[in-house]
Every structure is written in C-alpha cells, then in structure tokens.
Amino acid sequence: KQEVTQIPAALSVPEGENLVLNCSFTDSAIYNLQWFRQDPGKGLTSLLLIQSSQREQTSGRLNASLDKSSGRSTLYIAASQPGDSATYLCAVRPNSGYALNFGKGTSLLVTP
Amino acid sequence: DGGITQSPKYLFRKEGQNVTLSCEQNLNHDAMYWYRQDPGQGLRLIYYSQIVNDFQKGDIAEGYSVSREKKESFPLTVTSAQKNPTAFYLCASSWTSDTEAFFGQGTRLTVV
C-alpha cells in the first residue's frame, strides 16, 4: 500500500523567509501528485498538480518539484507571509488506484 | 460560482441514529469521493464514485453508505453501525479519477 510521509510535521518561520516542505512516497508508480492547503476547520484548497511526466510546477510564490524515481516531492514557498500559515498536505494518485493517498501534513506558522 | 457544496457545516448525531451528509457539485465532474479526517491522521477514503449509478468502497467503508443517482450529488449516510463517527468529513470531485481533485468545505459530525 502506498505510504505518504511529510516532514517536518510542524514548522515556524519568520516572515520573509523562503522555505521547503517535503513529501515522500513509497511506491513510484504514481499518476500524479497534488499539493493542498488547509486552513483550520476548512476544506482543502488545491495549490499545484504535477503529472508523473513533469518535473515541476509553479504558481506565484509556490514551486513544487517531483522526483518520481526517488519517491520525493518538495513544495517551495518564496518570501513567506503570515497569510501562508496553514497546514499543507501532499497527496499522490497511484497508477492502480482511483483516489488520492494523503500524508498527514505539515503545519506551517509564519510569524510577523 | 462553480464548486462543491457540503451541508450542513456542523451535524450532531445521537447514539443509534443514522445521519446523511450532503455533497453537491456544479463542476460537471464525473468522479466524486468521500474522505474522513481525524486529528493527527491523514485523510482516509470512505467511498468513491467514477460515474453515475456506480460507486466503490474505500479503505474505511464499514458503517457508511452512499448513493450516486445524479451526476452532481453524492450523499453519505453514517449509519448506527459506525461506532466512532465523530470526525471531519470531506467531499471531493474531479473530471476523471486521474485529474485534479477539488474539495468542499467539510462537515463536522459529532456524536452526542
């Protein structure tokens, strides 16, 4: 069964720092990988989707990379802001399945 | 506005009672999903549906039931057989099972 791990579980940084969130998965047979943001008590907001044939995707201050062969993805956030404070979730869609397998998330706090 | 609407936002269930959570989407997506989220755990798949009148069990389907009579609707019933139903329930949809997934705002169910 596909296992998805996110490190660190929690992270606190001062405003303005660049930061990297990590996601690893045990089975490289994936169709795509998706990064989400979740605010407390809210649903998930899709940030970036990377297909298995792609190496990275960018949206504004966010950049996500994918190294399928090593089972790793990173989410890079440039010039962090207090509004970036949230939980970030990584999810992979396996080739053999129909739904996403999620990590437990990284809780990010950006302090003014 | 296109999106996924879950209702109610909060729901309270008495012991031995069945309750139904609503999920409606106007994105014209074929695939729909129900996930359960508990503190400190990743999202776990309850049921998914790839097309109308078809649905499949996920990892934790026991004590739950669904129907998919219309493309835009995928209600989830939490039955009395579900012994620990207190959780945050999230509905999602996508064009197909391998495209970007979008989520609703969730329903928080509490047993009283």
Strand content of chain B: over 45%
Query: What is the oligomer described by this structure?
Result: heterodimer
Amino- and carboxy-terminal Cα gap of chain A: 41 Å
Number of helices of chain A: 0
Could you tell me the radius of gyration of chain B in angstroms?
13 Å
Average pLDDT metric of chain B: 94
Query: H/E series of chain A, N to C?
Result: EEEEEEEEEEE
* Low-confidence parts of chain B: none
Rg of chain A, Å, rounded: 13 Å
Q: Structural class of the helix and strand makeup of chain B? A: mainly beta
**Major sheet of chain A: size, sense and barrel closure?**
6 strands, mixed
What's the overall average pLDDT of chain A, rounded? 96
Task: Note the gap between the termini of chain B.
Answer: 35 Å
Q: How many distinct beta strands of chain B?
A: 11
What is the global morphology of chain A? Answer: globular
% residues in beta strands of chain A: over 45%
| Pattern of helices and strands of chain B | EEEEEEEEEEE
Would you write up a description of this structure?
- The complex is a heterodimer of chains A (112) and B (112).
- Chain A is built from no helices and eleven strands.
- By secondary structure, chain A is mainly β.
- In chain A, strands 2, 4, 5, 9, 10 and 11 form a six-stranded mixed sheet that branches. A five-stranded antiparallel sheet of chain A has the order 1-3-8-7-6, with no helix packed on it.
- Chain A is globular, with a radius of gyration of 13 Å.
- Chain A starts with a strand and ends with a strand.
- By secondary structure, chain B is an all-beta fold.
- Chain B has no helices and eleven strands.
- In chain B, the strands form two sheets. In chain B, strands 2, 4, 5, 6, 9, 10 and 11 form a seven-stranded mixed sheet that branches. A four-stranded antiparallel sheet of chain B has the order 1-3-8-7, with no helix packed on it.
- Chain B starts with a strand and ends with a strand.
- The mean pLDDT of chain B is 94.
- The interface between A and B is medium-sized, with 23 and 26 residues.
